[in-house]
Write a structure and sequence with these properties.
This protein has helices at residues 20-34, 86-106, 122-134, 148-151, 156-176, 185-194, 220-227, 248-258, 274-283, 300-304, 326-332, 346-354, 365-376, 380-397, 400-414; strands at 6-11, 38-44, 64-68, 71-76, 113-117, 138-141, 179-182, 202-204, 234-239, 263-268, 289-292, 309-313, 337-340, 357-360. It has 420 residues and is an alpha/beta fold.
């Protein structure tokens, strides 16, 4: 087998952005660099979350290149669309793919293999064309199933037409890859059965968390005090992107209807739907709902330690094509989870298998109201048992120590596999 010397990691987000994909790409780059590989990371100039100040990372006309701990990070001047709007997001995807291929074509040393964790589908298409033309093996990361994740948001009359066209593109991209990395068994079945990608080229590696970050945390009292949050109220917590799929407005309405006097709802994050959620809280005159904006990924374990129960709502249909990365983070915090998601989704299956909480149907308001009232009355030791179940499950399935090794091995082995 030819030894891989130069590996290029193409990542749509990268630290200081706090998304799980960004942290995974950083962990992967660090692991490979530690093992002697020459690593280049190609990423956009940061833009997530929406209101974060990244002015020192910005140059609209040229790339920003810096060596970070033996890793060359190239931040490309592609178009950014942190707000969830269809046309800007499409242009963002194409723009990033174009900047990536422009950089790769102009490089004197061709990479031995590229790992692509990019925006679907346009960036993936442009990069896959480069890989095929240049005979560079490509390992393709799938975080959400497209076009399904996109077309679930469209009117039914358009869904089948657009699905048929975009599914052909997604299949071609996957067939171009030397290996396709998916994050769940449902996704594996989609790509092997529906897309008909050879099973030996589809690898299941769940998203991971750095389990060490969730150890030796301050007490809940100290964490609440540090953020100015009441520590004497039962705390339901949501942490993540407050976008259209996250269904945070549904969560607020359920909390209002539950009307639990000794409870609070803590919403942590930013996103396109945040201002609407703040307006909803004000219109309902809810005094026990607090919003926190903290873009630092390193603070997630501390923030989640303020919870008694973590909340995972999703729009109906969204859970069939994606898994919210917050789930693994919740598990490592050893907190019970209340999920309202599609019953057959991977998210629902994980919560049930872990025996770490409760699953209701997506957007089932009456179920969630009843469950919130019920959980508040549960003894703390019962909640702790559920939380420990989740942490044990997380350590087995979502730990960095196993995930990053498996992904690195998949990438280094891919250079010996021929392209289609």
């Amino acid at each position: 087998m030819t030894t891989v010397q130069n590996i290029t990691i193409i990542s749509a987000v990268y630290p200081p952005e706090p998304q799980i994909s960004a942290l995974m790409s950083f962990d992967l780059a660090s692991h490979l660099a530690d093992h002697g590989y020459c690593i280049t990371v190609l990423c956009p100039q940061p833009s997530r979350p929406l209101n974060a100040d990244y002015s020192h990372y910005k140059d609209p006309y040229s790339s920003i290149e810096i060596n970070e701990s033996r890793i060359k990070v190239v931040r490309l001047p592609s178009f950014a669309a942190p707000q969830s709007r269809l046309l800007p997001r499409m242009w963002e995807s194409f723009s990033f793919g174009r900047e990536v291929t422009k950089y790769l074509v102009n490089e004197k040393v061709k990479p031995d293999v590229i790992y692509v964790n990019s925006w679907p589908l346009f960036a993936q298409t442009v990069i896959a064309r480069y890989a095929k033309k240049s005979a560079v093996p490509m390992v393709l990361q799938i975080m959400d199933i497209y076009p399904e994740a996109l077309t679930n948001k469209l009117p039914a009359v358009l869904r089948s037409i657009i699905n048929a066209l975009l599914k052909q593109i997604d299949t071609w991209i996957a067939l171009t890859a030397a290996a396709v990395v998916v994050i769940s068994e449902n996704m594996w079945r989609t790509y092997t059965k529906n897309r008909r990608i050879p099973a030996e080229r589809v690898v299941t590696i769940p998203t991971w968390q750095n389990e060490a970050a969730f150890e030796n945390l301050p007490s809940r009292f100290d964490c609440c005090r540090g953020y100015g949050i009441p520590d004497d109220l039962f705390t339901f917590l949501f942490l993540g992107n407050i976008g259209p799929v996250a269904c945070v407005d549904f969560l607020i309405n359920a909390f209002a209807k539950a009307d639990i006097s000794n409870a609070q709802l803590l919403i942590i994050g930013d996103g396109a739907a945040k201002s609407d959620c703040v307006a909803l809280v004000n219109s309902l005159n809810l005094s026990h709902v607090n919003f926190i904006s903290d873009p630092e990924a390193a603070n997630v374990p501390v923030l989640q330690s303020m919870a008694h129960v973590c909340m995972l709502p999703m729009k109906r249909g969204a859970g069939r094509s994606s898994i919210p990365s917050k789930l693994s983070s919740y598990l490592f915090s050893a907190k019970p989870v209340i999920a309202t998601v599609d019953s057959g989704s991977d998210t629902a299956c994980f919560v049930r298998q872990a025996e770490c909480g409760w699953v209701g149907e997506a957007e089932d308001l009456s179920w969630l109201v009843h469950k919130m009232r019920e959980v508040v009355l549960m003894p703390k030791d019962q909640l702790d048992i559920l939380g420990q179940h989740g942490k044990k499950f997380g350590l087995i399935h979502f730990s960095k120590s196993s995930g990053v090794v498996r992904l690195a091995n998949t990438i280094t082995q891919a250079c010996s596999k021929p392209l289609v």
